[in-house]
Design a protein that fits this description.
By secondary structure, the chain is of the alpha/beta class. The longest helix has 27 residues, at 668-694.
Length: 746
């Protein structure tokens, strides 16, 4: 629809009025007091139901609040409403007015007495704008309006305690083709390192803060329940990452209903909370839609330039069935501006990972043919597919954390009127996004959206409408680089450095190695690797310290976990030429291991290990004595390095780290002869000593006996010297022994 005759006349008149004011000097350049008064003790806001839209010839009421943020009371406070008929009929005019770069002479058309406003007090007001003070009759217009709070009745610089610029919307005719607005609100996890820490109270509390009762996500879902919102959701919200525990989970019992099984698998607070959020999403208002990011909302802008392979691995993780039942729409939302080449690379990585083609969210500046006039926000682009172009100016209005809902709505309506009048009667749509890191009050956001949606020149465009319109959307080429303008949302640089990516690679290798020796480990390996990938998320922009904490905790956790399969250090005495050496290997993991290889390497050629031990299988939380043949080469003490590895040869533990065994080696060939010699010498000495101590032995035989002498009998003949013949005695002949007699008889 072309502008009406009345609109054209009004626009011409407003331009003439503005020219006259400039000529007479009634419009002055911006000054230091253009947007702020001498003091700003009194802050002014409008209720969510205001701004009123003037549609007839009746009085208009403004409702709002004045808050004294100073340290002193303001006596006899007065609110002044000033208005002019100059039109804010272009987006540039709207921004110039709201930024304070234009200072218009505005007559006061209404006042309200506020009384004394004490320090810290908030005072409500209602002020009536008389119909006779609103002589303008525009089909559709936004008029500059100023609210000023003074101490006393006079509206002077000295008396001013607060002021704010806003606008009054006027509509005398209906809009034939309203702008369809899609509202996109992200639901992503905050940059809280405790969310990804070990099981326990700290992790549970972090998840309660993130998605539990009273959390920002809970407030957003509650406050915007009746608004036609499209939720952009990180699946990690509903699939909490595996806790960074320094042990693997114990295997569950077969019967999940048994009391023992209940004790083995305690309640998981993050999973319970996630299930509650999913249930809420399953019962959303029919006008609401869900778009899923890749898992953990990856920082695609950083990854495409640092490690496209890592990006492919991350986006390859598909949606589980319980999330696909809510929505199948996937979306890529880059942080900051992308070149056309980068956007195409990201889309190619996504399709190369076997995932359905996603929608790509980009600013309107990214396409070649948008110019200044608004067109449909959904396009198709070569190399990308479906593109959703969000309106940066409209989006930025709703992103302000401390903005007043009524003032926000007034500015949004003024901007949307100016956009509408660029091409009235043309079918168009605009997508408005709330930044991921926005801290705007969910309640204020809901109030602003509700107020905006009452305007007849705007209409709703649901996420389903936007996604379904892609196949028949017009084609627009992406610019090699987005056009000029202030990027929105403005996000900090990514802290994902090359060093962090390298650390992530080492962490995954360690998980793979440990998984290769764990029995029934596929579930744990998959979950642990996915938990490691949280470091590539967009959530860490502006939170480098938190990201470093998460990465360090993961490294320490894996180091401790792998260290639970280890060799016990020991000192061993080995007194043999060869034999079996016993080494104790411990498995303190909650699952059995198999195929663990023990390698023994002496540091000196004092001991030799001809054959390394066979691979080891061990039960959970057990130890095993591994025996292996060794050969002693020489006497001495030797250090033996003991290391464990997976079947692939990858070390279990830090590369190059070993457990040291101290072996005292004493081969038999060198010490046995010394021992035998010492023992023989001791026996000889002891025998001689006992012999000398006892003296001559006496016979134990009866000399008159005729029986044979026992073989073990001790015979002592005493002195054997015969008497000389000179003694005079006869020497008798010796008597034959009974044995001799017996022999003679034979």
């Amino acid at each position: 629809m072309q502008a009406t005759t009345q609109q054209r006349r009004a626009r011409t008149l407003s331009l003439l009025v503005l020219f006259c004011l400039l000529t007479l000097g009634l419009v002055s350049p911006p000054t230091a007091q253009a947007t702020q008064a001498v003091t700003d003790d009194l802050s002014i806001g409008l209720d969510a139901g205001t701004p009123a839209i003037v549609t007839d010839d009746t009085d208009v009421q403004l409702r709002g609040t004045v808050r004294n943020g100073g340290t002193k009371a303001v006596a006899a406070a007065t609110l002044h409403v000033a208005l002019t008929g100059a039109l804010l009929d272009t987006p540039g005019a709207v921004r110039t007015w709201y930024s304070g770069r234009a200072d218009l002479s505005q007559p006061v058309i209404a006042t309200a007495d506020l009384g004394t406003v004490a320090a810290g007090e908030t005072r409500s007001f209602t002020v009536t704008l008389p119909a006779q003070k609103l002589p303008w009759r525009y089909a559709l217009a936004a008029l500059p309006m100023t609210l000023t709070a003074t101490e006393g009745k006079n509206r002077t610089d000295a008396a001013t305690r607060g002021a704010v610029r806003t606008s009054l919307q006027m509509q005398q005719e209906g809009a034939t083709s309203p702008i369809r607005i899609g509202w996109v609100v992200p639901l992503t996890l905050p940059a809280d390192a405790a969310l990804f820490g070990p099981s326990g109270a700290a992790r549970d509390a972090a998840w309660v803060r993130a998605i539990g009762p009273g959390s920002r996500i809970d407030q957003l879902l509650t406050a915007l329940a009746d608004q036609p919102v499209t939720w952009v959701i990180d699946p990690a919200l509903l699939q909490p990452a595996l806790a960074a525990d320094p042990n693997v989970p114990a295997e569950q019992l077969d019967d999940p209903q048994s009391p023992q099984s209940a004790e083995t698998v305690p309640s998981d607070t993050p999973t319970t909370l996630a299930a509650l959020v999913r249930a809420r999403l399953a019962s959303l208002n029919p006008d609401q839609a869900i778009w899923w990011t890749a898992h953990d909302d990856p920082d695609v802008s950083s990854l495409i330039s640092r490690d496209a392979g890592l990006l492919k691995r991350v986006v390859a993780r598909g949606l589980p069935a319980n999330l696909r039942s809510l929505s199948n729409t996937r979306v890529v939302w880059p942080s900051g501006d992308l070149t056309a080449t980068q956007a195409a690379q990201i889309s190619k990585v996504w399709s190369g990972a076997g995932q359905p083609a996603p929608l790509t969210m980009l600013p309107r500046r990214a396409v070649t043919d948008d110019g200044t006039a608004l067109r449909n926000s959904v396009r198709r682009a070569p190399g990308v597919g479906g593109v959703v172009l969000y309106h940066e100016a409209l989006s930025s209005i709703l992103a302000e954390a401390t903005a007043d809902p009524g003032l926000q709505a007034s500015r949004f309506l003024a901007e949307s009127i100016a956009i509408y009048q660029q091409s009235p009667g043309t079918d168009r749509s605009a997508t408005v996004v709330i930044p991921r890191q926005s801290t705007a009050s969910p309640q204020a956001l809901a109030a602003t959206m509700k107020s905006i949606r009452t305007a007849t020149w705007t209409a709703d465009a649901t996420g389903k409408d936007l996604a379904d319109s892609v196949p028949k959307a017009e084609v627009s080429a992406l610019l090699p680089k987005p056009g000029g303008g202030t990027p929105f949302p403005t996000e900090p640089a990514s802290p994902l450095t090359k060093e962090l990516v390298t650390t992530l690679t080492r962490q995954r290798e360690r998980v793979t190695t440990l998984g290769s020796v764990l029995v029934d480990s596929a579930d744990w390996v998959r979950a642990r690797e996915q938990a490691l990938d949280v470091v590539v998320s967009t959530r860490w922009r502006g939170a480098g310290t938190e990201l470093f904490t998460v990465s360090t905790a993961q490294t320490d956790t894996l180091r401790e976990m792998v260290g639970k399969v280890a060799v016990n250090p020991a000192t061993v005495n080995f007194f043999a030429d060869s034999g079996r050496l016993s080494v104790t290997v411990v498995n303190d993991l909650n699952r059995a291991v198999r195929g663990v290889t023990l390698k023994l390497q002496p540091r000196k050629y004092v001991l030799r290990v001809p054959t390394q031990p066979e691979p080891i299988d061990m039960r959970a939380n057990a130890r095993s004595n591994v025996r292996t043949e060794v050969v002693a080469i020489a006497p001495g003490q030797v250090t033996v390095d003991a290391s464990l590895s997976a079947p692939s040869g990858a070390p279990l533990g830090e590369p190059g780290s070993v457990t040291q065994l101290k072996i005292n080696v004493r081969p038999t060939s060198t010490w046995i002869y010394w021992v035998l010699g010492i023992v023989g010498g001791l026996v000889l000495v002891i025998g001689l000593w006992r012999s000398l101590r006892r003296g001559p032995r006496r016979s134990t035989l009866d000399p008159t006996s005729t029986e044979a002498t026992a073989p073990d009998a001790i015979v002592d003949a005493g002195r054997s010297t015969p008497k000389s013949p000179d003694d005079g005695e006869e020497i008798p002949e010796p008597k034959a022994s009974p044995l001799d007699d017996d022999h003679r008889e034979h």
